[in-house]
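Running this now, will post back.
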Amino acid sequence: MVLEGVARQGMEEGLADGDEVVHAPHGADDTLAVLADAGGQDVILVSADRALGERVRRAGGTVVGPRWLLARLRPERG
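Update: finished.
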């Protein structure tokens, strides 16, 4: 998870429930692209931003839309 701006205050960098939390020093877009390009780790971008999605795909990351995440956070009730 990449946090930028004020959101960085909500969680420390490091591992949280098995996921890595990274603070973006400037904009999160550049940090996400760098992480995807670094290789050796799975990067999943959850975003509707097409330009950012293309940057992350070119760098080897996976891109999914916000609905993908929402479906996992709010599973359907049977």
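The chain has a mean pLDDT of 88. More later if anyone needs it.
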